[in-house]
């Protein structure tokens, strides 16, 4: 096994496409494919699986990635010792998370991550439904429920609270509901029922019996925009609702809901240095930001 083959393997694993790896390495795509095939033949193992989104590491590829990054780190340390240059973590990390968490907490703290790890690229995926680290669709995921199976490491990242909100203008024009029963007299804004991707988002029944949405969206940011535009009353995480000075909280002491964020990572990926660095950063910022609200 040659280090140069491992170097090409690392570029392909991080870029997720042969063409991107070739461009970053300054060689042609045919050479990248040929060297990957040679490495796979030497190891008698398939290193990548076919996927519509590009190159996806197989279980053997994940294990090789850990070893290759160990070799890369050792070479970097040796080079740094001899040249005085500093070895830094680098590569792509794909994170699957909810739109609200990505928009209102993670994106707002991105400057601190860039300062810590300028050579790690983050890809935040907020499609409805979480990508599965067990299937190598993402390097890690922040979910609303602990996964029941798979070769995964799951730990609670943080609890967070949700409450009822309306705009100040809406409350002045229509009055403040004083009970769950009175809520039925107001337009309810919430998730589109057919597009709820996690049972943890079915929380209207916890506030009032037979509450149904009049205006709905699969996007929490769209729901927030409708509340901000005085369209009705709805549930938001406090880390969203309390950030908007034009919103007022309703039934603060009787309509509070608690949910949890779970950090989920494949057991092989957790040992990858750049993934570990992202996990540590998220463990620092998310509980702290949620606690403020």
H/E element order: HHHEEHEHHEEEHEEHEHEEH
Largest sheet: 9 strands, mixed
Instruction: Specify Rg, calculated over alpha carbons.
Output: 23 Å
- In total, how many beta strands? 11
Question: Mean of residue pLDDT?
Answer: 85
Q: Structural class per helix/strand content?
A: alpha/beta
Give the overall shape.
Answer: elongated
CATH class identity of the domain at 158-260:
Alpha Beta
**Which bin fits the share of residues in helices?**
25-40%
- CATH architecture classification of the domain at 158-260: 3-Layer(aba) Sandwich
- What is the CATH third-level topology name of the domain at 158-260? D-Maltodextrin-Binding Protein, domain 2
Tell me the number of helical segments per DSSP (H or I, 4 or more residues long).
Answer: 10
The fraction of residues in strands falls at: 15-25%
Uncertain regions spanning at least 5 consecutive residues: 83-87
**Alpha-carbon distance between the two ends:** 53 Å
Identify the CATH homologous superfamily of the domain at 158-260.
Answer: Periplasmic binding protein-like II
Task: Describe the protein's architecture and organization.
It is a single chain. The protein has 293 residues and is α/β, with parallel strands linked by helices. Among the domains are: 1-87, Arc Repressor Mutant, subunit A; 158-260, D-Maltodextrin-Binding Protein, domain 2. The chain has helices at residues 3-15, 18-25, 29-43, 59-83, 99-106, 110-116, 168-174, 220-228, 238-241, 273-292; strands at residues 48-49, 56-57, 91-96, 120-125, 140-143, 152-167, 188-191, 215-217, 233-237, 247-250, 257-266. The strands form two sheets. Strands 3, 4, 5, 6, 7, 8, 9, 10 and 11 form a nine-stranded mixed sheet that branches. The protein has a two-stranded antiparallel sheet with strand order 1-2. The relative contact order is 0.15. Mean pLDDT is 85; it is low at 83-87.
